[in-house]
Design a protein that fits this description.
Layout: H1 5-10, H2 12-35, E1 42-47, E2 55-58, H3 60-63, E3 68-73, H4 74-79, H5 88-94, E4 101-108, E5 111-118
Parallel strand pairs: 1-4
Antiparallel strand pairs: 1-3, 2-3, 4-5
Length: 122
């Protein structure tokens, strides 16, 4: 589950631009998901078109972003078979500290990839 090199060139700039705007909000949402025992593995879905994965968190039109952002978590991804049950432990092992990194699932047309992006330091 390394960061995909295609992601770096094609998407990282626009994702980073939106991420900086919403990072504190995502960090707080991640904390709340874990605090409320919904999941230890929050995932934020960044997509160009609205996807039926997780719950709408920030619509790009409402927040002047380039990406729609949905809030989800690992168990939802397993249920939807976006992460196969036999890969669940591998995902958990690759998951980074959610207080320091945000787990994003980037989806654009045929491209889909998980990335872990560090929250900006205070």
């Amino acid at each position: 589950m390394e960061n995909d090199p295609e992601l770096n060139g094609k998407y990282l700039g626009t994702i980073s631009k939106d991420f900086v705007v919403v990072a504190e909000t995502l960090k707080e949402a991640s904390y709340q998901v874990r605090k409320r025992k919904i999941s230890d593995y929050p995932i934020f879905v960044f997509s160009r078109t609205q996807l039926p994965v997780g719950s709408v968190f920030l619509a790009k039109e409402e927040a002047a972003l380039e990406w729609h952002i949905n809030a989800s978590y690992l168990e939802d991804f397993v249920q939807r078979q976006l992460v196969m049950p036999e890969k669940e432990e591998e995902f958990k092992a690759a998951y980074r500290d959610p207080d320091e990194f945000c787990c994003l699932f980037v989806a654009d047309n045929e491209f889909q990839s998980f990335i872990f992006i560090p929250y900006p330091e205070d």
